[in-house]
Amino acid sequence: MGPQPDRAAGFDVDHNSGVEKRTILITVSGSDRPGVTSSLMGALAAADVDLLDVEQVVIHNHLTLGVLVSTTGSAAAVLDAVDMPMRSRGMAVELVVDAVGNGRTLSTHAIVILGSPVSAASFQAVAAEVAGCGGNIDTIRGVADYPLTGLELMVTVDDTEAADNALRAGLVTVASRFPIDIAVERGGLGRRAKRVIVFDVDSTLIQGEVIEMLAAEAGREAEVAAVTEAAMRGELDFAESLHERVKALAGLESSVIDRVAQTIQLTPGARTTIRTLNRLGYHCGLVSGGFLQVIEPLARELDIKFVRANTLEVVDGVLTGKVIDAVIDRPGKAEALRSFAAEVGVPMEHTVAVGDGANDIDMLAAAGMGIAFNAKPALREVADTTLDHPFLDAVLFMLGVTRDEIEAADIEDGSLRRVPLDS
């Protein structure tokens, strides 16, 4: 019996004919222009090859197109078939004969890097950390160029809890060394299954703290702000601190609530974020330790149906310095998230929570993905990921939504707008 062909080197057998087949990787690159892919496929059809895999990338009008084929013919015949059509379009062609590969595999993790900018040094540190964990970067794509640069890496590491923990811990260290935010999620369908998202309001959806704005009307902003800051750091019981702060509002006319509501400024990117999530079919909610009288009009404006917050007591048009019913505190926020998810029939692992203070700890811990937004240290320690840039729409990039997708939808309904960023 004669020597057997080396099938490990990329050979296979066409069982209908008994003829050996080989694999060839064809890479075409050059300036992107209409008809390149069609012309290449026409040439391959004439060469009578079978397609095994195709991947195409365009970066700033430069096209790279890779095609893995199987053929019973010679590599020279394939090259002859594709070389002239491609070169006539200004494209370079490379062939790898008997290409060996393991085929496409499902990446274990998605990593999103956000920065303004993302330096080569910071990216190298991320790549080195992945390699240090025994991982491989499978694909890279840009997800945003505004208001931040966003890059998404699909990576594969050992599918174990230990490897997952090591990757996350290592990337936290990398993020602490550079002015970038890094989000890590498990790959697979679960990443696309998020359907409920809740936002804290004060210093998350909006800029500033409403209770301090109200206290300013009573001339007691400084003392209330000091109590708020301690509560957000987790140094005071939230419910007790709320009652103490609300006392400072006693005697104010209730019309002050409307005046303050009209001065609220949304966090940059908040409208884009909610508008896009609504388009995607997310159930959006606001869960706040603030006040319903201020938040409900904002929720109606943003088309948010679910709201949980505290209610200021008003008697004869005057604030009494008390809140009505149970306080929405740290445990109350988590319970509100669970209630909202149950109401719309979404399991907790498919929920997202975004907040900034210690009273958001339970809510972020309960969510499938907890995002700490410009947060206090107590919250950062328990969050799945942190976002330290001041743009709320960066949350979308962490969820795998790209700026191109956002703006394509905005163009359709006439809402596209890029606000100039401060240099």
UniProtKB/TrEMBL annotation:
Keyword Nucleotidyltransferase: no
Enzyme Commission designation: 3.1.3.3
GO molecular function annotations of the record: hydrolase activity
Keywords on record: Amino-acid biosynthesis, Hydrolase, Magnesium, Metal-binding, Serine biosynthesis
Pathway note: Amino-acid biosynthesis; L-serine biosynthesis; L-serine from 3-phospho-D-glycerate: step 3/3
NCBIfam families recorded: HAD-SF-IB, serB
Protein name: phosphoserine phosphatase
The organism of origin for this protein: Gordonia hydrophobica
Source lineage: Bacteria, Bacillati, Actinomycetota, Actinomycetes, Mycobacteriales
Gene name of the record: serB
